[in-house]
Write a structure and sequence with these properties.
The protein has 227 residues and is of the alpha/beta class. The chain is 41% helix and 21% strand.
Length: 227
């Protein structure tokens, strides 16, 4: 994983053990980390600290994570990853509707959280990376260009955003609904089958005839597997 200097992360959780653990491991990864144990403190620290990423717990006394998410999105362009012990679809939908960029259920893998943090940074703060190398891919967001094994792939604007999103989240299963929300936008009114059409085009351009690079998981979605 590429380490970056100057990336700031704000942790918001009312459980001291989780705060202490995440603060330690994220600092070891090279991030600048601050902690808040409640919503009002998080909002104050947001203005002072100006983090790039907020790891936000949903279940907090007083001001819950949903309200904190809504208010933080009004203050800064920040990537918010919500953590919760609840796995109800309604909770995920509510968090994403209020502006959350990602959602993880406790208990979670730190490696997966770290991957999601980097994915959010690549998507929302690409200038911090310049050209990003992910396995055989080179993603240059300034030029809107992606190379695969050193070869520039000719992509439409939507194909570029789709491939960048999938490669940035490699190893994770991405449903059609999630892909539509992240690439086409929450207000997209078309059919989910449009995702299949674009995936087919990407496979052709990447020479992925056997679907070993972009895998289909029936009933679940797609996953990019890198060598």
């Amino acid at each position: 994983m590429q380490q970056l200097k100057g990336i700031k992360i704000l942790l918001v959780d009312d459980e001291p053990n989780i705060l202490q653990f995440l603060e330690l491991v994220l600092q070891n990864e090279g991030f600048e980390v601050r902690c808040a144990a409640d919503g009002p403190t998080a909002i104050t620290m947001m203005k002072q600290f100006q983090p790039h990423v907020v790891i936000l717990d949903v279940m907090m006394p007083g001001m819950d994570g949903f309200e904190v998410c809504r208010m933080l999105k009004k203050i800064e362009n920040v990537a918010i990853i919500m953590l919760t012990a609840r796995d109800e679809v309604d909770d995920r939908v509510k968090g994403l509707t209020l502006g959350a960029d990602d959602y993880m259920v406790k208990p979670f893998s730190f490696d997966e959280l770290l991957a999601r943090i980097y994915a959010r940074i690549r998507n929302q703060f690409p200038h911090l990376f310049g050209e990003v190398v992910v396995g055989p891919f080179q993603i240059d967001d300034r030029r809107k260009e992606i190379k695969y094994e050193g070869r520039v792939i000719e992509l439409s604007p939507t194909e570029y955003e789709l491939l960048k999103y999938m490669v940035s989240n490699h190893g994770l299963v991405l449903s059609k609904k999630i892909i539509l929300d992240k690439v086409w936008g929450y207000d997209f009114g078309g059919e989910e089958n449009i995702v299949e059409v674009y995936i087919r085009s990407l496979r052709d351009k990447l020479g992925d005839k056997d679907h070993q690079l972009i895998r289909t998981l029936r009933g679940s979605g797609y996953r990019v597997d890198l060598p």
